[in-house]
Design a protein that fits this description.
By secondary structure, this protein is an all-alpha fold. The protein is built from ten helices and no strands. This is Transcriptional regulator, TetR family.
């Protein structure tokens, strides 16, 4: 069932579960579903009605978090010029992707599900908006393909997660942005 077709209280419970999972899983990769249910203020049965397995919860959380990131475009564009917004948005995407790199088997299974489709389109739409605004402002050249930018940006979340890797990601992002000008 589509979450939007659920009763209001069920939608609230689902949102509470996702918020609790986001908080707990961002600090402890091995947190139990019982701990997530407790933090969400719902019974274990309620959690399992929404997410029958840990993998299902993790994948839904991944989709939810990617959509939340995609939805930050308008705010960034209100706060800064388009090229700066593009840089910040890509940096934040890379940080999130590096953080989630350890999801392992659950994300590998995503390729077999609709998760890739559910997360790819919001990211491409957000990136398209940022690129269009930067092009309109004369900050980047025209006819840049968002899929190409995303593919190149993938290098940013493949760097090591240490301080040297973060510095390398900054240098790579500088190269990407220079290539767009």
């Amino acid at each position: 069932m589509n979450p939007k077709d659920q009763r209001v209280d069920a939608q609230h419970n689902r949102a509470a579960i996702l918020a609790a999972a986001h908080d707990l899983l961002s600090t402890h990769k091995t947190v139990s579903l019982n701990a997530i249910a407790k933090k969400a203020g719902v019974a274990n049965g309620t959690l399992y009605r929404h997410f029958s397995t840990r993998e299902e919860l993790i994948l839904e959380l991944y989709c939810h978090d990617v959509q939340r990131h995609a939805d930050t475009v308008d705010q960034l564009l209100q706060e800064m010029e388009p090229l700066a917004a593009l840089r910040v948005w890509i940096e934040q995407l890379a940080v999130y992707a590096r953080m989630k790199h350890g999801l392992g088997e659950a994300l590998t299974k995503a390729a077999e599900s609709n998760v890739v489709q559910r997360t790819y389109q919001p990211v491409i739409q957000a990136l398209s908006c940022l690129l269009k605004k930067a092009e309109d402002a004369g900050q980047i050249r025209s006819n840049i393909i968002p899929d190409d930018v995303l593919l190149v940006a993938g290098a940013l979340w493949r760097v090591p997660q240490d301080q040297a890797g973060i510095k390398q990601a900054e240098r790579l992002l500088d190269l990407i942005l220079r290539g767009l000008r």
